[in-house]
């Protein structure tokens, strides 16, 4: 017959003094220490913007892309002053910088790069590439930001209305989204921009690109609104007599802000590429207004004799699209992690 001292059964493998043994298995449902460790770095009650800033600081690639984005924005804003600093306007010819006996090729190596022309000159005309590139950044980013603003405002309003009100409103807006997305938008853009003559090309391109871009973000916002409109705080506001406008602006809109911001940063590189493609095809911004796509199209005829004329605008376009894409991917992973996995 064996006797058991009081409390011995409660010790078990924990040892004589009640301390857990190193070999003891964790209780069911307990999270491993390694999995719980990262959560210790996040203060309780942190807002999504605080989490985003903290996460962005941890990613070197994102910091570099953010610096590149800010550099391009600063370059676009200060384009007239940068061109004046270089000493040339984007429409000013410099016949002394090209060789008339070699078909107008730039004098000097690397496309005529010199202390007078920092990025070389354009063949035949001798226009300064630095001045044209910085003004091209202004045109490209202006169209991209303005078209993105139209897409985000229209898509967010349509998505919230469709998801919150439902019924006939949802049916009409959803069918309109399907119709717009199924329309051959690129062909229509090319046709419309080709026949439009005496109009402001920048305004027309912004409007056309914005009209065909809103259904994508509207679908995202509609799905988020459907998941938010039956939350407890929304029901409480509705029972308390709050108007639909107050519920939409105070309760629904902040809940969809994260995915909208993430989607917005991913829209901008697509808008830059669309503007460059339309200008490359000759239906976008017209000369003498500079555009990266237009410069690339004109440089095709000189890619063998003057490759720098092709390389310089292509590098600027590549860096802008890459920087905005990396920044948008990072913000999507932080602000809309579920959307990033689907």
Descriptive labels:
15 helices; elongated; 2 strands; 342 residues; mainly alpha; two-stranded antiparallel sheet; disordered N terminus; single chain
Overall description:
The chain has helices at 8-11, 33-36, 48-57, 60-77, 79-86, 129-165, 167-182, 185-195, 201-211, 214-228, 232-239, 244-280, 292-299, 307-335, 337-341; strands spanning 98-99, 105-106. By secondary structure, the chain is mainly α. A two-stranded antiparallel ribbon has the order 1-2. A hairpin with a 5-residue loop joins β1 and β2 (105-106). It starts with 7 loop residues before the first helix and ends with a helix. Residues 1-40 have low confidence and may be disordered.
Q: Summarize this, please?
A:
Helix content is 65%, strand content 1%. By secondary structure, it is mainly alpha-helical.
Topology:
Layout: H1 8-11, H2 33-36, H3 48-57, H4 60-77, H5 79-86, E1 98-99, E2 105-106, H6 129-165, H7 167-182, H8 185-195, H9 201-211, H10 214-228, H11 232-239, H12 244-280, H13 292-299, H14 307-335, H15 337-341
Antiparallel strand pairs: 1-2
Helix pairs in contact: 3-14, 4-6, 4-14, 5-6, 6-7, 6-9, 6-10, 6-12, 7-10, 10-12, 11-12, 12-13, 12-14, 13-14
